[in-house]
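[recover] target loaded
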């Protein structure tokens, strides 16, 4: 969820930054255009007043209502130098501490200058800049909220898809995202929705995986069921053979195959939900002692701390029998069984499992090399590694 939240904020910040950059560019462009237009109007008015003052000066008449003077002391030096070269010009400056627009031209080796108040123009430009900034901030805020809303919608849908994927990986194959199909929710303008495509692909994968596993379960159940009848007949027929080593070998292999078939049937029942655990409260220490005694001599039991657990007594006995059989077959004595609270540990002193088997964990019907002392899974009648444990809760 943290990664998705980060994606949400990244999308929101990216859209906000893009909006701010666009607003800044447009603001600068609008400011330059408007300022050039307004200043141009004031400059044009100052140039008109300068022409009017130069005309009156040429005819020796008064300047009328125009603010004009010869070589005024506040005339900017750059404008004075321009007039000294026989040219006319205009620029913004100050006159008695007030901002004005100056316009000056040559008149008998002097500079005839006029000025127009510029404070109102400057205030107008400042108001325009304020309006541009406020509009940009408002646009950025609206875009940020819209981007956050859209990003939150996307991240929520991705979070839902990720949660369903985790449920599927945990074994819940009935989990589905369930976003509307393309025909039900085409999206704005009929555009393609990539998040929905991912969700549909995940649902399709889960459905295909579920169908495949169901087919495997049915196949396992069918195989076990079909093997059971001929095996029963083979065991009955083997009992009629004359006593001797051949009969012992045949009976031993047939019993092993019969146990494997029973394991397959139990697995198929558990996977399909037909058979469920018969849970009951059991004193774990006494139950383990009875199970170890029933499995035969050769193992010692030590109860460090007893506990009452909710478990299936029949499967508890079977698990312990499998662990003890594997310890005697593949390990070395002494075989020790320890009960400490809800934890039962069956330990032998053999070489244990190779690292690759320990890393991958128990798997059904997986067998390692004989030298490794190791097989894992139901069919090989064992569960863990060098230190084999069973936990009942």
């Amino acid at each position: 969820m943290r990664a998705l939240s980060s994606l949400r904020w990244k999308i929101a910040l990216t859209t906000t930054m893009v909006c701010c950059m666009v607003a800044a560019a447009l603001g600068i462009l609008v400011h330059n255009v408007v300022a050039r237009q307004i200043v141009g109007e004031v400059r044009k008015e100052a140039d008109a007043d300068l022409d009017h003052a130069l005309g009156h000066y040429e005819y020796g008449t008064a300047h009328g209502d125009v603010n004009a003077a010869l070589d005024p002391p506040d005339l900017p030096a750059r404008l004075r130098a321009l007039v000294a070269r026989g040219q006319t010009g205009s620029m913004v400056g100050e006159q008695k501490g007030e901002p004005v627009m100056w316009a000056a031209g040559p008149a008998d080796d002097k500079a005839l200058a006029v000025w127009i108040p510029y404070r109102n123009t400057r205030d107008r430009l400042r108001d325009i800049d304020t309006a541009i900034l406020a509009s940009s901030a408002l646009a950025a805020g609206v875009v940020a909220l819209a981007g956050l809303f859209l990003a939150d919608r996307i991240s929520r849908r991705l979070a839902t898809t990720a949660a369903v994927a985790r449920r599927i990986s945990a074994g819940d194959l009935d989990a589905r995202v369930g976003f509307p199909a393309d025909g039900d929710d085409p999206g704005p303008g009929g555009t393609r929705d990539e998040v929905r495509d991912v969700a549909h692909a995940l649902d399709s994968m889960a459905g295909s995986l579920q169908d495949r596993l169901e087919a495997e379960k049915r196949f396992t159940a069918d195989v076990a069921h079909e093997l059971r009848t001929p095996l029963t007949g083979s065991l009955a027929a083997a009992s009629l053979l004359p006593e001797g080593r051949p009969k012992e070998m045949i009976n031993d292999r047939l019993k092993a195959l019969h146990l494997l078939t029973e394991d397959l049937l139990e697995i198929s029942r558990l996977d399909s939900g037909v058979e469920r655990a018969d849970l009951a409260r059991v004193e774990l220490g006494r139950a383990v002692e009875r199970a170890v005694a029933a499995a035969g001599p050769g193992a010692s039991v030590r109860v460090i701390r007893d506990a009452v657990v909710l478990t299936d007594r029949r499967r508890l006995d079977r698990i312990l029998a499998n662990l003890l059989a594997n310890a005697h077959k593949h390990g070395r004595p002494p075989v020790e069984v320890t009960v400490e609270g809800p934890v039962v540990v069956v330990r032998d002193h053999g070489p244990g499992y190779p690292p690759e088997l320990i890393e991958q964990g128990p798997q059904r019907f997986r067998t390692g090399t004989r030298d490794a002392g190791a097989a894992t899974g139901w069919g090989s009648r064992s569960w863990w590694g060098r230190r084999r444990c069973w936990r009942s809760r």
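[recover] notes: The helical segments are 2-59, 77-84, 119-169, 194-238, 245-272, 284-295, 313-330, 355-360.
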